[in-house]
Amino acid sequence: MQVTLNPVVINQARLLRELHHLATLTDCPPTTDASLPAPTQAVTRIVFTPRDLEARAWLISLAESAGFTVRVDPVGNTYIRWQGTDPDLGVVGTGSHTDAIPHAGMYDGTVGVLGGLEALRALKESGFTPRRTLELLVFTSEEPTRFGIGCLGSRLLGGVLDPATADALPDLLSEITPGAPSSPTASSSAKVGPQGTRLTLHDVRTAAGFTGPLTDVTLPIGYYHAWVELHIEQGPLLEREMLAADSALKGSGLSPSGGSRGLPAPENSSGKDGALAPERTILGIVTNIAAPASYRFIVEGFGGHAGALLMPDRRDALPAAAELILSVERHTLAANAEAKLTGQSGVDSVATVGAINVHPGNVNSVPSRVTLMLDIRDTDPERREHTMTALRADIANIESRRGVRIIEERINADTPAISGDHIVDTLTTLCEQEHVTYRKMVSRAYHDTSFMARIAPVAMLFIPCRNGVSHRPDEYATPESIALGTRILALALAQLANE
Ligand SMILES: [Zn+2]
After folding, report:
1. In the chain, what are the helix, strand and coil shares in percent, each to the nearest 5?
2. What local confidence, expressed as pLDDT, does residue 350 receive?
3. What pLDDT is recorded for position 165?
């Protein structure tokens, strides 16, 4: 059913003011880095720290003063609810997260939360009445900083994580010496657990005031009729395409700021790092979300004195680990090349060894043990597994040639998510009606929506971010892009709510 709406006006100034205010709720000191765009803050907001609780309270006050009701579940997922005229129908939801890894930017997650709130408020101010209930969900702990697992709140909500296992997750911050001045949790209540053990999620959440059994967090399939998350892209593709479109227009002598799409050209949005100002926003409509699998490999060799242990006698763990890392790169490149050859979706597979620990780690000791962490992602779980199989064959070869033992531990392997056709169609149709340029794309980072996909038809709407930079203080999206994404989100929520 086509919804007739009064004009929906996104209050860009209000939305930006709130984004900037949320950025000030940070455990990083105000930046003195003049290269960052004003009023950029380096944001550190780790779940269940006093700063996180302060941000939650402020958000709830915004939601309540806009006339929405608020419910908080036992893990702290926060539901901001606008009841529809037919409350028995499945809910239409949007949302994201407000926690931030240490020294991050101010747009990751927050754009989806405050943009979602602005979308609801703008609809309300336009006189719209939803038939289905509309909900803005603020997820707990999308970032793995504190409990070692990303998307904690949405995993529980989607029934992907066992509640008892979740409650026993160790608090990785609880061994940090309280009060260390450089610690992101210097002002938090992190403590050392009894007998030197770590605190658990259960300890930390109940101390923060989130009580009740985690079994109550899970939502039934069908609770949501539809789900859309607004988020910055965290990659360079949309911006790249905008710059290409601009230079094509300039080459043709046409003005990029006029034209049928009628979008105002942003004011100067160029950074001091030389990035060009994209003149027109291209939004991303996410059709698939790649899923990561992570593994720990322990390479056990034979250590000794760097002078006395002669080369023919060595079973050095580090060169063996180096071979393993190169093998990861080789097989991932091969997977991409093969996909390209067979006309599949192109460069899709990525794998990273981003952490390595060498034991004993002395300049004059032969390494006896190396621990490394592998993160491998793909939209196709079979291709991901195929790469792992090829890697394991190399590992067997490294073991026998070098006389080392390599132990593999799988930490997790999530399922890639596929967007619901109907939600994707709703977003594409609205973009076309509103003369907004869009491209369909894959999300290579994973999001809470990956787990919402277990219980609801989902899609995501991406806003370009400068240079594709994220998880850094210089993360940036233009106010115009944020407002445009919020506008399409609002229209989609209205459309879906009246189905
Ligand atoms: Zn995020």
Report:
1. 35, 20, 45
2. 92
3. 95
Give the model's pLDDT for residue 181. 38
Tokens representing 394 are 């190399």
Which residues of the chain fall short of a pLDDT of 50? 176-190, 255-278
**Alpha carbon of 99 to ligand 1 centroid (Å):** 8
Q: Spell out the domains of the chain, with CATH numbers in brackets.
A: 12-234+417-497 (3.40.630.10), 292-413 (3.30.70.360)
Per-residue confidence (pLDDT) for residue 118, from 0 to 100: 98
Distance 483 CA to ligand 1 centre (A): 18
pLDDT of residue 247: 79
Dihedral sign of CA atoms 8, 232, 17, 21 in order: positive
Q: Give distance in angstroms: CA of 446 to centre of ligand 1.
A: 8
Structure tokens given for 227: 């789900």
Provide φ and ψ at 386, rounded to 5°: -60, -45
Cα angle 256, 261, 263; round to 5: 70
Please give the distance, rounded to the nearest whole angstrom, from the Cα atom of residue 463 to the centre of ligand 1: 12
**pTM of this prediction?**
0.81
Task: Tokens for 378, please give them.
Answer: 């793909």
Give the pLDDT confidence score for residue 175 in this predicted structure: 66
| Alpha carbon of 42 to ligand 1 centroid (Å) | 15
